[in-house]
Design brief:
- By secondary structure, the chain is an alpha+beta fold.
- The protein has a domain of about 90 residues: OB fold (Dihydrolipoamide Acetyltransferase, E2P), CATH 2.40.50.110.
- Helix content is about 30%, strand content about 40%.
- A five-stranded antiparallel β-sheet has the order 3-2-1-4-5.
């Protein structure tokens, strides 16, 4: 009986360490990073069980191309900037993760910086 208990404890420990390692890997491994520009068309705090910050950037002229993104809760400056720049032309710096978890966000793209830009569509040069 003592051997069965040791096997169970080792199995539980192995599974727990595997889950922690997997979570750390998908959180810290960045698939890509980059910059996207466009009009910030949507930004909201949504969710049933887990509230996450989600938004969309309109990259094309009119309603042609949308870039969906998420923002982590600890990115308070990014969240405040996105609220302030709603409907304006912005440049978003992001990192793309290989996977996500429900409490991080709906997308694989996580915004790290927001910059207000001059719109190329305004005609003002």
């Amino acid at each position: 009986m003592n051997t069965l208990r040791k096997i169970f404890i080792y199995l539980l420990l192995t599974v727990s360490l595997g889950l922690v390692g997997y979570t750390l890997f998908i959180y810290n491994f960045t698939l890509s990073d980059g910059v996207r520009s466009g009009i910030l068309s949507k930004f909201s705090h949504k969710g049933v069980l887990f509230k996450t910050w989600e938004g969309e950037l309109n990259e094309g002229f009119g309603a042609t191309r949308f870039f969906p993104f998420s923002v982590e809760d600890n990115e308070t400056k990014v969240i405040e900037d996105l609220k302030k720049y709603q409907g304006q032309y912005v440049k978003l710096e992001y990192k793309e993760r290989i996977k996500t978890l429900p409490w991080w966000g709906d997308t694989h793209y996580f915004i790290t910086k927001v910059t207000l830009e001059k719109s190329p569509y305004s005609g003002n040069k």
